[in-house]
């Protein structure tokens, strides 16, 4: 705020007996927006450190998941991955808080510049009126300044009130289910209102550390109100960061994950379960012809609602060449160029009987 213009207008207003807002009150309302920008830079740097650390931990999980097998390995990898998800949420919360600080500083700074321009223009008009000894016109300029200045001051106050509400939301009590980092507003449950299913049961039950990923996935169910609770991620994570500093995650957030996995905020699934079923490894085997050509196909088992088909008689053997039946020898080149003449059939020889002899010739 321009101190010179403020003091000049305040003195003229007192001389002409015109109400005028106090410059001290304006300075207290505007505050120091530069401090908000400095705080935003601190939160943004802290978010980068958390995000980098989370990425380093996730990068080492691949080797652990490959070298270490068993139920204990499943539980450990699942726990570290859930903690990594919480680290990402914490980094997002810090970044969101930095954005809110910068937005507040920019909004307050813009309204402050408009107010300075308005005060400077009014001071020039009042000075010109007083030089011309026109007190009435000077009073009019001071009166015209009151309404737009009040609107700009209210706009500055609105920016600060919005940031104050954000801080109040972060300072609220955050309720968290084991394995999840969504911040939820504490709800007052009356005697006639049923509690939200799943919260009390999950909070009071823990699973052993050896729980495998397959059993954990089968027991996971979608929790009601997950969409509404997603809006409080930034608030809950920022509260935990403010309580323990920027270098560590709250122990309450880390301890709730030991031996148990959350069911509603899983971005990645554990892939260390060994597959022993051939169908899972290579897929379902397609229908293929029999190994030996001509071999009858295996009959399928009849279904319960269909009548079994009668077995059909199949020939024992097909007279076709195959790899199991050698092919006949091929003729040589000489046999092809000079084929042998087929031998004429010889007359049948045998013993003639008496009745087979020709009749005697007559003698002349």
TrEMBL record:
InterPro entries: ESAT-6-like_sf, T7SS_ESAT-6-like. Residues 181-229, 256-364 are annotated as: Disordered. Residues 266-275 have a biased composition (Polar residues). Pfam families: WXG100. It comes from the Bacteria. Residues 203-216, 296-312 have a biased composition (Low complexity). Transmembrane segments: none annotated. SUPFAM superfamilies: EsxAB dimer-like. Residues 256-265 have a biased composition (Gly residues). This is WXG100 family type VII secretion target. It comes from Saccharopolyspora terrae.
């Amino acid at each position: 705020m321009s101190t010179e213009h403020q003091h000049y207008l305040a003195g003229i207003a007192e001389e002409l007996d015109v109400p005028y807002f106090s410059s001290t009150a304006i300075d207290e309302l505007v505050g120091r927006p530069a401090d908000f920008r400095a705080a935003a830079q601190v939160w943004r740097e802290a978010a980068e450190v958390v995000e980098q650390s989370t990425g380093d931990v996730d990068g080492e999980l691949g080797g652990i998941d490959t070298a270490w097998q068993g139920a204990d390995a499943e539980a450990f990898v699942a726990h570290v991955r859930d903690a990594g998800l919480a680290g990402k949420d914490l980094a997002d919360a810090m970044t969101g808080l930095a954005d809110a600080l910068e937005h507040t500083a920019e909004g307050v700074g813009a309204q402050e510049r408009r107010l300075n321009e308005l005060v400077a223009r009014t001071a020039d008009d009042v000075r010109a009126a007083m030089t011309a000894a026109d007190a009435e016109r000077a009073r009019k300029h001071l009166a015209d300044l009151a309404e737009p200045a009040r609107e700009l001051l209210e706009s500055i106050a609105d920016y600060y009130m919005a940031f104050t509400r954000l801080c109040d939301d972060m300072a609220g009590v955050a309720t968290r289910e084991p394995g999840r980092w969504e911040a939820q507003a504490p709800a007052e449950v009356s005697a006639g209102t049923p509690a939200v299913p799943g919260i009390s049961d999950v909070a009071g039950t823990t699973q052993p550390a050896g729980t495998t990923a397959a059993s954990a996935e089968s027991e996971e169910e979608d929790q009601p109100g997950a969409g509404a609770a997603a809006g409080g991620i930034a608030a809950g994570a920022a509260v935990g960061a403010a309580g323990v500093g920027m270098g560590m995650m709250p122990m309450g957030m880390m301890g709730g994950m030991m031996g148990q996995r959350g069911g509603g905020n899983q971005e990645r699934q554990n892939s260390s379960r060994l597959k022993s079923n051939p169908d899972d490894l290579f897929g379902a085997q397609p229908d293929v012809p029999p190994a030996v050509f001509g071999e009858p196909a295996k009959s399928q088992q009849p279904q319960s609602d269909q009548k079994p088909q009668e077995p059909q008689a199949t020939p024992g053997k097909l007279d076709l060449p195959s790899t199991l039946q050698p092919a006949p020898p091929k003729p040589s080149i000489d046999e092809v160029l000079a084929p042998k003449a087929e031998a004429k059939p010889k007359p049948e020889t045998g013993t003639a009987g008496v009745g087979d002899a020709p009749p005697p010739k007559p003698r002349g």
